Amino acid sequence: MKKSLIVLSGGMDSVTLLHERAGDIALAVTFDYGSNHNKKETEMAKANCKELGIEHVIIPLSFMHEHFKSSLLEGADAVPEGHYADENMKSTVVPFRNGIMLAIAAGMAESRGLDSVLIANHCGDHSIYPDCRGEFINAMSEAMANGTYANVSIDAPYTNISKTDIARIGKRIGVDYSKTYSCYKGGEKHCGKCGTCIERKEALHDAGIEDPTEYEG
Predict the structure, then answer these.
(1) What are phi and psi of 210, to 5 degrees?
(2) CA angle 2, 50, 56 (to 5 degrees)
(3) What are 25's strand-pairing partners?
(4) At CA 82, angle to CA 204 and CA 14, rounded to 5?
């Protein structure tokens, strides 16, 4: 019996996890919090779920766009260019985003009789995003288990591996990365210059995958 819910953005990492664990996943949940790239990512999430025959729901979180501070919520021009290692990339943090999404996912999982929530955070996220770090994931998992009758826990198998490692998994199981979206600016084509575009390029290259992404310019 399928017992997992996955938090699915439509980016490389969560789509890889969706395909890798498809046999265990009963429900995929995408959160629309008003980011620049939500629309394009959601299209990809929906397409991959349809391909795999997995139920997909979209949960609106408009309050985050209205009340939270992040360049991801302020339009394409607000998103800095450069590598994730650069200090200016901290502006892309959406405060406690994963905490909010995981809390909702825990309630949805228990409501559906599911006992685990899959999330595709990885070690490349750790320096910039506090709610992607192993310490946070472990603490949030304990809180979710303590706060649900079903002891719902987090399953985060990519926490200690890199995006390149994730791409290698995708290559092995045949993930089509043209059906994923990563750009923080949210355009029809990837900008190729923001942190997540650069990380995407590097991961695909280092994993030996021909990049199927359409970039501007």
Answers:
(1) -65, 125
(2) 60
(3) 4
(4) 40
For residue 207, which amino acid is it? A
- Residue-wise pLDDT for 1-38, tens only, equals 789 999 999 999 999 999 999 999 999 999 998 888 88
pLDDT in tens, 112-161: 999 999 999 998 765 678 888 999 999 999 999 999 999 999 999 999 99
Instruction: Report d(CA 131, CA 126) in Å as an integer.
Output: 8
Nearest 5°: the CA angle 124, 47, 7 is 45
Of the candidates 5, 13, 8, 33, the residue with the CA atom closest to the CA atom of residue 144 = 5
- From residue 167, give the alpha-carbon distance in Å to each of 55, 78, 91, 161, 188: 24, 28, 26, 11, 23
Residue 54 Cα distances to 4, 8, 24, 175, 202, angstroms = 11, 11, 10, 16, 30
CB 79 within 8 A of CB 92: yes
